[in-house]
Here is the input.
Amino acid sequence: MSSPSVAQIGFGQVRHTRHRPQRNAFAYPTYFLMLPMRSLRQHGPGTLARNRRAALSFNDTDHGDGRADSLQWLDELLIQHGIDDAAGEVWLHTYPRVLGYTFKPVSFWYCHRLDGTLRAVLAEVNNTFGERHCYLLDAPHYGQPCEASKVFHVSPFCPVRGRYRFVFMRADGAAPRTVARIDYFDDLSGDADSEPLLNTSVSGELQPLNARSLRRALWTYPAMTLGVMARIHWQAMRLWIKRAPFFRQPPAPGDFVTAASLPATPVNAEHSHP
Here is the structure.
Protein backbone atom coordinates (compact mmCIF):
# COMPACT_ATOMS: atom_id res chain seq x y z
CA MET A 1 0.00 0.00 0.00
CA SER A 2 1.17 3.57 -0.61
CA SER A 3 1.94 6.27 1.95
CA PRO A 4 0.85 7.73 4.27
CA SER A 5 1.28 4.65 6.40
CA VAL A 6 -1.68 4.97 8.71
CA ALA A 7 -3.76 2.08 10.01
CA GLN A 8 -6.85 1.39 7.90
CA ILE A 9 -10.08 -0.53 8.13
CA GLY A 10 -11.79 -2.11 5.14
CA PHE A 11 -15.55 -2.51 4.69
CA GLY A 12 -16.63 -4.97 2.03
CA GLN A 13 -17.64 -8.56 1.31
CA VAL A 14 -16.52 -12.14 1.61
CA ARG A 15 -17.56 -14.27 -1.36
CA HIS A 16 -17.40 -18.03 -1.69
CA THR A 17 -18.61 -20.28 -4.51
CA ARG A 18 -18.30 -24.08 -4.63
CA HIS A 19 -19.00 -25.43 -8.11
CA ARG A 20 -19.30 -29.20 -7.58
CA PRO A 21 -20.63 -31.76 -6.99
CA GLN A 22 -23.40 -29.43 -5.80
CA ARG A 23 -23.18 -25.68 -6.13
CA ASN A 24 -23.03 -23.71 -2.89
CA ALA A 25 -22.49 -19.95 -2.90
CA PHE A 26 -22.70 -17.13 -0.40
CA ALA A 27 -21.62 -13.54 0.14
CA TYR A 28 -21.42 -11.85 3.54
CA PRO A 29 -20.67 -8.26 4.54
CA THR A 30 -17.46 -7.94 6.50
CA TYR A 31 -14.76 -5.61 7.71
CA PHE A 32 -11.07 -6.16 8.33
CA LEU A 33 -7.95 -4.33 9.43
CA MET A 34 -5.13 -3.22 7.12
CA LEU A 35 -2.19 -2.42 9.37
CA PRO A 36 1.18 -0.85 8.46
CA MET A 37 3.26 -2.93 10.82
CA ARG A 38 6.57 -1.06 10.50
CA SER A 39 4.89 2.32 10.97
CA LEU A 40 3.01 1.02 14.01
CA ARG A 41 6.29 -0.14 15.50
CA GLN A 42 7.88 3.26 14.95
CA HIS A 43 4.99 5.60 15.78
CA GLY A 44 2.72 3.55 18.04
CA PRO A 45 -0.79 2.16 17.49
CA GLY A 46 -2.70 5.45 17.63
CA THR A 47 -6.43 4.73 17.78
CA LEU A 48 -5.85 0.99 17.51
CA ALA A 49 -6.03 -1.01 20.74
CA ARG A 50 -2.97 -3.24 20.43
CA ASN A 51 -2.23 -6.10 22.81
CA ARG A 52 -4.78 -4.89 25.34
CA ARG A 53 -8.45 -5.40 26.10
CA ALA A 54 -10.92 -3.38 24.05
CA ALA A 55 -14.16 -3.82 22.15
CA LEU A 56 -12.07 -4.06 18.96
CA SER A 57 -8.36 -4.81 19.16
CA PHE A 58 -5.32 -6.35 17.48
CA ASN A 59 -3.10 -8.88 19.28
CA ASP A 60 0.31 -9.88 17.94
CA THR A 61 0.03 -13.27 19.65
CA ASP A 62 -2.80 -14.21 17.27
CA HIS A 63 -0.21 -14.52 14.47
CA GLY A 64 2.92 -16.45 13.58
CA ASP A 65 4.44 -18.42 16.43
CA GLY A 66 2.49 -16.50 19.05
CA ARG A 67 5.22 -14.12 20.15
CA ALA A 68 4.58 -10.57 21.36
CA ASP A 69 6.17 -9.03 18.24
CA SER A 70 4.62 -10.62 15.15
CA LEU A 71 6.61 -8.37 12.80
CA GLN A 72 9.85 -9.75 14.21
CA TRP A 73 8.55 -13.26 13.52
CA LEU A 74 7.73 -12.30 9.93
CA ASP A 75 11.13 -10.71 9.27
CA GLU A 76 12.89 -13.81 10.60
CA LEU A 77 10.72 -16.07 8.42
CA LEU A 78 11.49 -14.03 5.29
CA ILE A 79 15.23 -14.17 5.96
CA GLN A 80 15.03 -17.93 6.48
CA HIS A 81 13.56 -18.21 2.98
CA GLY A 82 16.14 -16.00 1.30
CA ILE A 83 14.06 -12.82 1.17
CA ASP A 84 16.34 -10.07 2.49
CA ASP A 85 15.06 -7.05 0.55
CA ALA A 86 11.59 -6.62 2.08
CA ALA A 87 12.59 -3.71 4.32
CA GLY A 88 9.74 -1.46 3.19
CA GLU A 89 6.29 -1.28 4.70
CA VAL A 90 4.53 -4.51 5.69
CA TRP A 91 0.76 -4.27 5.48
CA LEU A 92 -1.18 -6.89 7.42
CA HIS A 93 -4.71 -7.66 6.20
CA THR A 94 -6.41 -9.45 9.07
CA TYR A 95 -9.50 -9.74 11.25
CA PRO A 96 -9.41 -8.03 14.65
CA ARG A 97 -10.46 -9.35 18.00
CA VAL A 98 -14.02 -8.24 18.74
CA LEU A 99 -15.13 -8.36 22.37
CA GLY A 100 -12.05 -10.49 23.03
CA TYR A 101 -12.82 -13.16 20.39
CA THR A 102 -11.27 -13.77 17.01
CA PHE A 103 -10.99 -16.38 14.31
CA LYS A 104 -8.85 -15.59 11.28
CA PRO A 105 -9.44 -18.01 8.36
CA VAL A 106 -6.64 -16.26 6.45
CA SER A 107 -4.47 -13.19 6.97
CA PHE A 108 -2.25 -11.64 4.31
CA TRP A 109 1.14 -10.04 4.99
CA TYR A 110 2.02 -7.73 2.07
CA CYS A 111 5.79 -7.21 2.22
CA HIS A 112 7.30 -4.34 0.21
CA ARG A 113 10.75 -3.20 -0.81
CA LEU A 114 12.05 0.18 0.26
CA ASP A 115 10.96 1.61 -3.10
CA GLY A 116 7.36 0.56 -2.39
CA THR A 117 7.18 -2.37 -4.83
CA LEU A 118 5.68 -5.65 -3.67
CA ARG A 119 8.35 -8.19 -2.71
CA ALA A 120 6.43 -11.07 -1.11
CA VAL A 121 3.03 -12.05 0.27
CA LEU A 122 2.59 -14.44 3.17
CA ALA A 123 -0.86 -16.05 3.41
CA GLU A 124 -1.33 -17.19 7.01
CA VAL A 125 -4.10 -19.80 7.21
CA ASN A 126 -5.90 -21.07 10.31
CA ASN A 127 -8.35 -23.97 10.47
CA THR A 128 -11.08 -24.61 13.02
CA PHE A 129 -8.96 -27.35 14.63
CA GLY A 130 -6.49 -24.85 16.08
CA GLU A 131 -3.79 -25.42 13.43
CA ARG A 132 -1.92 -22.83 11.37
CA HIS A 133 0.06 -22.94 8.14
CA CYS A 134 1.64 -20.31 5.87
CA TYR A 135 1.99 -20.07 2.09
CA LEU A 136 4.89 -17.85 1.03
CA LEU A 137 4.49 -16.19 -2.36
CA ASP A 138 7.88 -14.96 -3.57
CA ALA A 139 8.03 -11.99 -5.98
CA PRO A 140 4.29 -11.69 -6.74
CA HIS A 141 2.72 -8.82 -8.66
CA TYR A 142 -0.59 -7.11 -8.10
CA GLY A 143 -3.15 -8.36 -10.58
CA GLN A 144 -1.12 -11.38 -11.67
CA PRO A 145 -1.85 -14.92 -10.44
CA CYS A 146 0.60 -17.08 -8.51
CA GLU A 147 0.16 -20.59 -7.18
CA ALA A 148 1.07 -22.83 -4.26
CA SER A 149 0.38 -26.50 -3.69
CA LYS A 150 -2.31 -27.19 -1.10
CA VAL A 151 -0.77 -29.09 1.83
CA PHE A 152 -2.90 -27.98 4.80
CA HIS A 153 -6.32 -29.24 5.90
CA VAL A 154 -8.89 -26.46 6.05
CA SER A 155 -12.33 -27.96 5.37
CA PRO A 156 -13.52 -31.57 5.73
CA PHE A 157 -15.32 -31.07 2.42
CA CYS A 158 -12.12 -30.48 0.44
CA PRO A 159 -9.20 -32.89 -0.02
CA VAL A 160 -5.60 -31.97 0.83
CA ARG A 161 -4.29 -32.00 -2.73
CA GLY A 162 -4.21 -29.75 -5.75
CA ARG A 163 -3.28 -26.08 -5.74
CA TYR A 164 -4.31 -22.59 -4.74
CA ARG A 165 -4.24 -19.72 -7.20
CA PHE A 166 -3.82 -16.30 -5.56
CA VAL A 167 -4.59 -12.96 -7.15
CA PHE A 168 -4.17 -9.68 -5.24
CA MET A 169 -5.53 -6.40 -6.53
CA ARG A 170 -5.57 -2.88 -5.21
CA ALA A 171 -6.68 0.56 -6.27
CA ASP A 172 -5.40 3.75 -4.68
CA GLY A 173 -6.89 7.20 -4.92
CA ALA A 174 -9.90 8.89 -3.36
CA ALA A 175 -11.56 5.54 -2.59
CA PRO A 176 -8.74 3.01 -2.03
CA ARG A 177 -9.81 -0.60 -2.40
CA THR A 178 -8.23 -4.01 -1.96
CA VAL A 179 -9.14 -7.49 -3.22
CA ALA A 180 -7.58 -10.82 -2.26
CA ARG A 181 -8.79 -13.80 -4.27
CA ILE A 182 -8.00 -17.48 -3.76
CA ASP A 183 -9.23 -20.12 -6.20
CA TYR A 184 -8.81 -23.77 -5.25
CA PHE A 185 -8.18 -26.45 -7.89
CA ASP A 186 -8.41 -30.03 -6.62
CA ASP A 187 -6.79 -31.44 -9.77
CA LEU A 188 -3.04 -31.84 -10.17
CA SER A 189 -2.73 -31.04 -13.88
CA GLY A 190 -1.98 -27.31 -13.71
CA ASP A 191 -4.07 -26.92 -16.87
CA ALA A 192 -5.16 -23.32 -17.42
CA ASP A 193 -8.52 -24.56 -18.70
CA SER A 194 -9.33 -26.68 -15.66
CA GLU A 195 -12.26 -25.57 -13.52
CA PRO A 196 -11.71 -24.60 -9.89
CA LEU A 197 -13.60 -26.38 -7.15
CA LEU A 198 -13.83 -23.13 -5.16
CA ASN A 199 -13.68 -19.41 -5.84
CA THR A 200 -13.20 -17.26 -2.76
CA SER A 201 -12.45 -13.59 -2.25
CA VAL A 202 -12.45 -10.84 0.33
CA SER A 203 -12.66 -7.25 -0.83
CA GLY A 204 -13.30 -3.87 0.68
CA GLU A 205 -12.99 -0.12 0.52
CA LEU A 206 -10.31 1.20 2.86
CA GLN A 207 -10.79 4.04 5.33
CA PRO A 208 -8.52 5.49 8.00
CA LEU A 209 -8.84 3.65 11.29
CA ASN A 210 -10.22 6.25 13.68
CA ALA A 211 -12.93 6.65 16.28
CA ARG A 212 -15.61 7.13 13.62
CA SER A 213 -14.73 4.06 11.55
CA LEU A 214 -14.36 1.96 14.70
CA ARG A 215 -17.87 2.96 15.78
CA ARG A 216 -19.20 2.07 12.35
CA ALA A 217 -17.61 -1.37 12.56
CA LEU A 218 -18.84 -2.12 16.06
CA TRP A 219 -22.34 -0.75 15.63
CA THR A 220 -22.94 -2.32 12.23
CA TYR A 221 -21.34 -5.73 12.98
CA PRO A 222 -21.24 -6.02 16.79
CA ALA A 223 -20.22 -9.70 16.82
CA MET A 224 -18.41 -9.95 13.50
CA THR A 225 -15.64 -12.41 14.38
CA LEU A 226 -18.03 -14.70 16.27
CA GLY A 227 -20.20 -14.56 13.17
CA VAL A 228 -17.27 -15.74 11.04
CA MET A 229 -17.07 -18.99 13.02
CA ALA A 230 -20.86 -19.40 13.11
CA ARG A 231 -21.12 -19.00 9.33
CA ILE A 232 -18.34 -21.52 8.74
CA HIS A 233 -20.30 -24.14 10.66
CA TRP A 234 -23.58 -23.17 9.01
CA GLN A 235 -22.09 -23.58 5.54
CA ALA A 236 -20.53 -26.90 6.61
CA MET A 237 -23.99 -28.10 7.61
CA ARG A 238 -25.38 -27.07 4.24
CA LEU A 239 -22.64 -29.04 2.46
CA TRP A 240 -23.32 -32.07 4.65
CA ILE A 241 -27.03 -31.89 3.81
CA LYS A 242 -26.11 -31.68 0.12
CA ARG A 243 -23.96 -34.81 0.59
CA ALA A 244 -20.71 -33.20 -0.43
CA PRO A 245 -17.72 -35.60 -0.19
CA PHE A 246 -16.23 -35.75 3.31
CA PHE A 247 -12.48 -36.01 3.98
CA ARG A 248 -10.99 -36.84 7.36
CA GLN A 249 -8.38 -34.55 8.84
CA PRO A 250 -4.86 -35.69 7.93
CA PRO A 251 -1.74 -34.88 9.99
CA ALA A 252 -0.52 -31.32 9.72
CA PRO A 253 2.37 -30.77 7.29
CA GLY A 254 5.84 -31.09 8.76
CA ASP A 255 6.95 -27.68 7.50
CA PHE A 256 5.21 -24.57 8.80
CA VAL A 257 5.72 -22.70 5.52
CA THR A 258 4.99 -23.83 1.95
CA ALA A 259 6.71 -21.83 -0.77
CA ALA A 260 4.83 -20.95 -3.96
CA SER A 261 5.23 -23.24 -6.93
CA LEU A 262 6.16 -22.10 -10.43
CA PRO A 263 4.39 -18.97 -11.75
CA ALA A 264 0.75 -19.63 -12.37
CA THR A 265 -0.77 -20.25 -15.74
CA PRO A 266 -2.94 -17.38 -17.02
CA VAL A 267 -6.39 -16.96 -15.52
CA ASN A 268 -9.27 -17.68 -17.85
CA ALA A 269 -11.10 -14.49 -18.82
CA GLU A 270 -14.38 -15.63 -17.26
CA HIS A 271 -12.61 -16.22 -13.91
CA SER A 272 -10.36 -13.15 -13.88
CA HIS A 273 -12.43 -11.00 -11.50
CA PRO A 274 -14.13 -11.75 -8.19
Q: What stands out?
A: The two ends are 20 Å apart (CA to CA). The chain has one domain: 8-271. The chain is about 15% helix and 35% strand. Confidence is low (pLDDT under 50) at residues 266-274.
